[in-house]
Write a structure and sequence with these properties.
Elements lengths: L12 E5 L17 E5 L8 H11 L2 E7 L13 E14 L8 E6 L3 E4 L5 E18 L16 H8 L23
Antiparallel strand pairs: 1-2, 2-6, 3-7, 4-5, 4-6, 4-7
Protein name: Cupin type-2 domain-containing protein
Organism: Coniochaeta pulveracea
């Protein structure tokens, strides 16, 4: 299998979105970190296996699944999430569909999304059939949960724990350099 090489950092277009909390969705307020979208990060020749091998080679995240995105808004309180789109395209919503500060993006094969813990996300519409991603979580934080922002019992306590999660010390795609390291503080 040929080694997968991401786009040069100097050529990479990155979108950063600070998404306001909304209802019981903490969004960016939980970590003070933006949602990151690396547009066309990987070449169109990518395969899921090559993406998984690349993620493992950086040693920052562990690939855990290949799937589409759930159609119900959800977030994770136990870990950040990295999604690498490996086929098709879809319109995704981040932050809650009724949130005036939400982000709706059409993402496609080759794009990468870094979702901080607490940021709600869901599939709105599959644009090109076969939309699939490789989902990965920081090494040591592979146990992810599902929270729905409905104010259910116990969820507020989970949201409060998000502030204690460590942010990336290395970029999940680029290693020692990369967008998630900008402004680490």
């Amino acid at each position: 299998m040929a080694r997968l090489v991401p786009k040069a950092l100097s050529d990479l277009r990155v979108s950063r979105h600070m998404i306001p909390s909304f209802g019981h969705l903490p969004n960016s307020s939980a970590t003070s970190k933006p949602l990151f979208i690396y547009h066309s990060c990987f070449p169109p020749t990518l395969t899921p296996s090559a993406v998984e091998a690349h993620l493992q080679s950086t040693g920052v995240v562990s690939p855990q699944w290949r799937y589409t995105m759930y159609t119900t808004t959800h977030f994770h309180s136990t870990t950040h999430e990295v999604l690498c789109i490996t086929s098709g395209s879809a319109r995704l919503c981040f932050g809650g569909e009724d949130n005036p500060g939400r982000v709706e993006e059409e993402l496609e094969k080759g794009d990468v999304v870094v979702i901080p813990a607490g940021v709600g996300h869901r599939l709105l519409e599959e644009v090109e059939k076969g939309f699939e991603m490789v989902g990965a979580y920081p090494v040591g934080s592979e146990q992810w949960d599902m929270c729905y922002g409905k104010g259910s019992k116990g969820e507020e306590e989970k949201v409060n724990r998000i502030k204690g999660l460590k942010w990336f010390e290395r970029d999940p795609i680029y290693g020692d350099q990369g967008p998630v390291l900008d402004g680490r503080g």
